[in-house]
Amino acid sequence: MQKSKSNIAEEISQLVPEATSWLLWQIDSENGFHLVASHGFGDQDATSIYQKWAGHHELLQRAAEQKTVLKAQGQASQIKSSEAVSLELIAVPLIENDVALGIFEMIVTNQISMEPFLQSDRIHQVTHEYGPGWLKNLLPATPDNNFQSLELLQQFWRIQQETPPAECLQALLELLVVHGYTNRCSLFQKVGQKTQLLAISGGSEIDSRSPALRNLTQFASTLFDNDFPEPRTFQAQDLKDYSLSAKSIHVFEVDPAGQFHHPSRLLLESFQTPRMTINPELIEEFPVWRLVLSAQKKQTSTKRSRSWWLWPAGLVIAAVLVLLPIPMTISAEGYLVPEDRRNLYAPETGTIHANDLHLPENRIVDKDQLLLTITSLDLETRLSALDGEVATLNEQIRSLRNTRPEAERRNDGRDTVDVNIGIRLAELKAELQGLQAEQSLVKHRIESLKLNSPLAGQILTWDAEHQLAGRPVQSGQHLLTVGDPHSSWEAIVEVRDVDLQFVKQTLEAAPQQEWKLVSLAEAKSRWSGVLKILSPTVEQHPTGQAFAVAAIDLQAPEADQLPGTRIRATLDCGKYPLGYVIFRAPIETLRSYLWW
Predict the structure, then answer these.
(1) 480 falls in which pLDDT band (50, 70, 90)?
(2) Residue 396: C-alpha distances to residues 323, 403, 405, 421, 423 (Å)
(3) How far apart are CA 123 and CA 410, in angstroms?
(4) Is the pTM value of this prediction over 0.90?
């Protein structure tokens, strides 16, 4: 017979009369604490009170983990005055089968009054006898079992109607997780000496090679040695030998061992916190679950047994794959650009300031129009130094020239003075010529930092301002591409290395073989073209794919053709067996190993 909250409160007052205020907590499945009953708070909301207690959750957590009585000090303000009152919180774990189910928490103002209780046998009675019973009596019961069962059957019906037959079993297990009964659910059956995983929640595919699933299957194989008329719970210590990360596993028997069907077991795993008790709602609902799971399992097994015709069908399919020839097309993606185009590269290392970018908004440029200027601090610094050195040498030469006439007027017989001055003057002139030549070269390099459009046309580089404004550039770095949209157009595509041999064979037989091109953005935009050039070398894409660049002359381009339009080009390479066309990549890989 289930007790009411008032009966439990009366039982607590008789067993622990010292506790005038108390809270009864249940440990939920998410490693949290659920308040199921409280007493002694008058008209105040106990929930709003304890939520303001700093460190309160840690007290409950430690008491549950250590399975021992813990105390904590606190303060509270009286309602009719602002005086602080000292409180002592005493957390008593409620334990069953060495597992903490909840916490009985007492709030007292006189800790000395609680010492007799804490030193008596009553603390053991609360912890191991009465406390777990209080929680079980306060668990919410199902108000209307018939209504709940009807709703559950409606959910089963929707799954049967809306889910493909091959996925129904997994969908039923997912429903157990959605109802909050478990974190992961799996169904195993025993066929002869082999344990099979029929379905598992949380994934669209079952990978039996997964180490975690291998360990789970090994554990499940031991469950078929005994019958389970009642559900059984395995805790973490029972699962260590199988290297399972679950905190607890509840095992249900779906089908017992029989003559005409295979036994099966349902496993409910909890990963956040161990579930010490099975949800009472699941216990009440499980007869319906057992019936539905068993029926779905047998239906799946029946469908598998009807697959005798698969072998003949497989032979027919294999014959079709080998003998039926179909056209094989090679596809390559790329983009459209004007054939007459030029690239601009950075002549020096430097920086492009935002005010040095002169790109028109409509992207239309004239020949020799200034597009941008690069600033090189190294060149400007060197030019400034050369200017200073040239000025210094000019001053020295002028000074020597003024000294020479004075030396010529001297009559003391020291004629070598004039000779020395002439030699020095010649040296300075030679040094000046070298500096002036370097000065001219630096000026020319600075002048080359002004980049003009090499032709009249359109800037093809996308978002050039964002890519260049305020950015440092390196010598030789690509900056812009300018093309003439009124010239001929071509498609630049990347042909995969695995397709090169077919492209070459086709073009050797028919050099003017037509390529079909279609816009990736607008399927109705289509063109045709003929291969102009195929790169003799293979490049490596950043994604790891190897390819060769090919240029295709575009026939009859549109008047408003947009540069950079992404396209897919296809080439008809003749007819090959259907199986080869579909499985060409693995066949070629196998051929490379067998030297076919």
Answers:
(1) very high
(2) 95, 11, 15, 11, 13
(3) 127
(4) no
